[in-house]
Write a structure and sequence with these properties.
This protein is 42% helix and 13% strand. Strands 3, 4, 5, 6, 7 and 8 form a six-stranded antiparallel sheet that branches. A three-stranded antiparallel sheet has the order 2-1-9, with helices on one face. It is globular, with a radius of gyration of 23 Å. The chain folds into two domains: 137 residues, no CATH class; 191 residues. A hairpin with a 6-residue loop joins strand 1 and strand 2. Helix 3 packs antiparallel against helix 7, helix 4 packs parallel to helix 10 and helix 13 packs across helix 14. By secondary structure, the protein is α+β, with helices and mostly antiparallel strands.
C-alpha cells in the first residue's frame, strides 16, 4: 500500500469559508462590516500572545511558543501570504510555528485536529482489513502534592516496563492486539476547589487497541480489562506508583448501535483521544462557578494568563514537565500498514505552496502579533484580497482591530 498524506485542505476550506462567492469579494470600503468568523480561534491566538508576553517577562519558563507566529523561519526568506486560487483560502509561508501540541494553543488546535483525522482514516482502513478495536485509559493514584515532572517519569517508566515483559506478550497474543495509538492527557484541580477535595495533577494515557479478531462482548471486554489491570498495577508498583483496580484501567467497547458501524463509531473516539482544544479554550471549564472540580490544561492556561494569575506557577510546572514528552505515539508499522506518511507535528502544519499575493515585513509581523491578529489577517486576505491585506495592515500599524477598524481590545 502506497503511503499518502491526508488532504487537510477540505476541512480548512469549510472552516474558513468567508461566505463570499468566487469573483464577488467585498470591496475595500465594505471591510468595516466584517467580523471575526471564529471567536474560539481568536481566543487561542490571544492566549498565545499572552503566553509569549509572560515568557518574555520571565513569569513562565522559556518555551519555543514565545516566537510562534511572530518571526520568519530562519534562512527561509521573508514571510508571504499565499492563496489557493481553487479554494480561496490563504496561508502563511515561511512564518515560524512552534508546532507544540502540548503548550501552544494555536499549533495544538491544528495539530490535534489533523491527528484526529489521521486516526479516523487509520480506523476505517483497519476495519476494512478485518480488525476491530477497543479503547483503554490508564491512570495512577495522585494527590495535591504530586510533582508533575517526577510523576510523568515514573508513569512512563511503568508503561515501558509493562510492555517489555512476557506477560504483555501473552496478553497481546490472547487478545490479538496487533497495533495501538496512544495519547497523553493532563488535567488539574479547578480554581476554587475545596482543599479537601483537591487531587493534584492527573496525567494519564488514552489508548486505542486494534484487534485482529471479532468485536468483543461485554464479558470479554471485562476480562481484558482485568488482565490489563493486573499488569498495569504490577508495573506501577515497580516504579513507586499505585492504582486501584476500580480506577487504574478502563477498557471500553465501541459505541455501536443500529445503523452505526465501527467506522462511524471511531470518529468521536478519535476526536476525544486527540483532544482538540477548540471547545476546551472557551467551554465551561474556563468559567469559574460553572465548571467541574477538574480543568483542562487549555482552560487553566487561559485562566492563568487572564483572570487567575495565581495559576501561573502551575502552568509553568506543566510546561517544564512536558518538555520532550511525545503526546501521541503509534505502534511501529501501523502508519505504513494503513498507508499514511510519517509526518512530524511541524510537517503537519506545512501546507502546499500556492500563489503568493503579499510579502510581509518584520514591522508588519510585529504589528499583527501585537493584537494576536495572524488569523484575522488571513480572514481579511480571503475576504478582500490584496486590498483587504493592505487595509488590515494599515489598521494594525495604527493600533486598530484588523477586521473592524476600531481601536483594538483583547477578546473577553
Amino acid at each position: 500500500m502506497n503511503a499518502q498524506r491526508l488532504d487537510f485542505q477540505t476541512t480548512k476550506t469549510a472552516a474558513r469559508s468567508s461566505g463570499f462567492p468566487a469573483g464577488d469579494q467585498p470591496a475595500l470600503g465594505k471591510r468595516a462590516n466584517l467580523r471575526p468568523s471564529n471567536n474560539n480561534s481568536n481566543i487561542r491566538y490571544d492566549t498565545r500572545r499572552l503566553q509569549s508576553a509572560a515568557i518574555k517577562a520571565r513569569m513562565l519558563s522559556e518555551h519555543r511558543s514565545r516566537l510562534c507566529g511572530c518571526v520568519p523561519v530562519p534562512k527561509r526568506g521573508a514571510v508571504q501570504i499565499h492563496i489557493d486560487t481553487a479554494s480561496g483560502t490563504c496561508r502563511y509561508v515561511s512564518l515560524y510555528h512552534c508546532a507544540s501540541a502540548t503548550a501552544c494553543p494555536v499549533c495544538a488546535a491544528t495539530v490535534r485536529a489533523r491527528r484526529a483525522q489521521e486516526i479516523i482514516y487509520a480506523g476505517k482502513r483497519m476495519i476494512q482489513e478485518g480488525f476491530t478495536y477497543v479503547s483503554a485509559t490508564l491512570t495512577a493514584a495522585h494527590g495535591p502534592c504530586t510533582k508533575l515532572h517526577e510523576f510523568i517519569k515514573q508513569f512512563n517508566d511503568a508503561a515501558r516496563k509493562m510492555k517489555s515483559g512476557r506477560a504483555w506478550q501473552a496478553f497481546a497474543g490472547r487478545w490479538a492486539v496487533r497495533y495501538s495509538i496512544r495519547t497523553v492527557d493532563t488535567t488539574d484541580d479547578a480554581p476554587g476547589t475545596d482543599p479537601a477535595a483537591r487531587s493534584g495533577w492527573h496525567y494519564h494515557f488514552h489508548i486505542i487497541f486494534f484487534l485482529e479478531k471479532h468485536h468483543l462482548t461485554e464479558n470479554e471486554a471485562q476480562k481484558m480489562e482485568s488482565e490489563l489491570a493486573d499488569m498495569w498495577i504490577n508495573a506501577l508498583g515497580r516504579v513507586g506508583l499505585s492504582a486501584s483496580r476500580a480506577n487504574g484501567v478502563a477498557v471500553d467497547l465501541p459505541h455501536l448501535s443500529v445503523g452505526v458501524s465501527g467506522a462511524d463509531a471511531i470518529k468521536p473516539l478519535a476526536q476525544y483521544v486527540a483532544k482538540n482544544v477548540a471547545w476546551e479554550m472557551t467551554g465551561q471549564d474556563t468559567k469559574i462557578g460553572r465548571m467541574d472540580r477538574r480543568i483542562s490544561i487549555w482552560g487553566m492556561q487561559r485562566l492563568a494568563l487572564t483572570s487567575h494569575p495565581e495559576l501561573l506557577p502551575r502552568l509553568d510546572e506543566y510546561i517544564r514537565a512536558m518538555r520532550g514528552i511525545a503526546w501521541m505515539t503509534w505502534t511501529q508499522g501501523l502508519k505504513h500498514f494503513v498507508g499514511l506518511d510519517e509526518l512530524s507535528d511541524a510537517e503537519l502544519l506545512e501546507g502546499a505552496v500556492a500563489t503568493p499575493i503579499y510579502t510581509l515585513t518584520q514591522a508588519d509581523l510585529t504589528a499583527v502579533a501585537r493584537q494576536a491578529g495572524q488569523r484575522k489577517l488571513l480572514e481579511a486576505a480571503e475576504a478582500g484580497g490584496l486590498e483587504g491585506i493592505r487595509a488590515a495592515l494599515a489598521a494594525a500599524h495604527a493600533g486598530h482591530d484588523i477586521l473592524i477598524g476600531e481601536p483594538w481590545l483583547p477578546p473577553a
